[in-house]
Amino acid sequence: AFNANVAAAQDALNAFIVATPEKALEAADAVDAARAKGETLGKMAGVPIGMKDLFATQGVQTTAASHILEGFTPEYESTVSANLWKAGAGMLGKLNLDQFAMGSSNETSYFGNVISPWRKQGSNAALAPGGSSGGSSAAVAARLCPAATGTDTGGSIRQPAAFTGITGIKPTYGRCSRWGIVAFASSLDQAGPMARDVTDCAIMLESMAGFDPKDSTSLDLTVPEWTDGLDPDMSGRRVGIPKEYRMEGTDSDILESWDNGIAWLRDAGAEIVEVSLPHTKYALPAYYIVAPAEASSNLARYDGVRYGLRDLPDGANLQEMYAATRAAGFGDEVKRRIMIGTYVLSAGFYDAYYNQAQRVRTLISQDFKAAFEHCDVILAPTTPTASFPLGENSDDPLAMYLNDVFAVPASLAGLPAMSVPAGLNKDGLPLGLQLIGKAFDEQGVLNAGLAIE
Ligand code: GLN
Questions:
Q1: What is the mean pLDDT of the chain?
Q2: Distance (Å) from CA 37 to ligand 1 centroid
Q3: Which of 132, 181, 403 gets mutated to test ligand 1 (max ligand atoms within 8 A of its CB)?
Q4: Where are the domains of the chain?
């Protein structure tokens, strides 16, 4: 049934880059066989999921939604996807995304925009599903799959989840192995689940996470049984409301939903306290230096020799082949990030930009540390607005970057953060609320999310 829905919705949503119905069926057959033999089944036994096309999948094209990787078929499997298959999940297909996970609306994909299944009341204009995990959010929101993988470097799980009324959690940096995930900004990249609710996210995260010696920043910690610890009772828990997140330019609908969230958590027994994260306003500029800097280094490997596309004009030498391949293979947003990244890393500007951004990053981590002396979990909006029509921000990169204003602080600090649905705005569009936890305290984040949902 899911395979049929994926095929039927492709023209309308463009959520998938390739469908792999046979993989989903194989997993279902394997579960049937294991059940017949009386074997214990994995936590995700028989669950068909969508895989963001940033995860390397053995024998299945992996593109990061870029022309430069078109036709690249990995000979290896990412650790996260391998963990999911081990737990019994099956793959419905590879999901569309912003090219190299750079974007907030899924408009930078070489394979075309993803279209949100939502519409504003009284309008048929196509809306952005958020980004970069826009294929994942659209597919789960449209119920093409019960769950999907996402990755979050500066909000790419949380913002699309908020835009489409689903739940998504970015765990503590290092919980999920980065091995086999196309690298964007390695010190920020983190995989996580996107699903219909908190419980499904907890089940899936347990299957994705775990120590991996192949990733040097992988956390060598046992994966907690988050599902066993799920409990929406907030009594004795303190919820911090960061005063600097009351920013100009935030929709009144968003502020109202934030107040609702405060009331729901108070009703669940929580004590509400105001906290301060004084360096919040520097988070976005610091992120847009650190992330492009790392990206410019990570993307140097796409040279026309090793993967996917090669553009070799007649009589071209090696340098000319690199240039031609990159010119043809990278999209505009990717080129913009590479140029920003190489600029802030260049000898003359390194101290002024890159080092300064790293210092800001430390201050932001310290802000959170200080705030968590006074609270157990932080509640904030996920985004400053609800979903917007496709095309509305696509030629204004700064307006697009502003979408990430509430998401990037937790990314810079490596903290677990989740977006949960929090009702609809005046136009009938979904809004999300964000819960940010202490490092390693996914349980606290999930439980507060459960109290809201
Ligand atoms: N929207 C942000 C960016 O464009 C975040 C991307 C992400 O988390 N992958 O960089």
A1: 97
A2: 45
A3: 132
A4: 2-229
Beta bridge partners of 378: 240, 436
334 touches 66 (CB < 8 A): yes
> Is 13 strand, coil or helix?
helix
Q: How many CB atoms lie within 10 A of CB 75?
A: 7
* Residue 343 token pair: 């600029």
Q: Right CATH number for 2-229 from 3.90.1300.10, 3.90.650.10, 3.60.21.10, 3.30.1360.170?
A: 3.90.1300.10
Q: What is the ipTM of this complex?
A: 0.97
> pLDDT, tens digit, for every residue of 184-228?
999 999 999 999 999 999 999 999 999 999 999 999 999 999 999
How far is 165 from 170, CA to CA, in rounded Å?
16
pTM metric for this prediction: 0.98
Report CA(382)–ligand 1 centroid distance (Å): 14
Instruction: Find the residues whose C-beta lies inside 6 A of ligand 1.
Output: 101-104, 132, 152-156, 184, 291, 404
Q: What is the position in ligand 1's atom list of the atom closest to the CA of 185?
A: 9
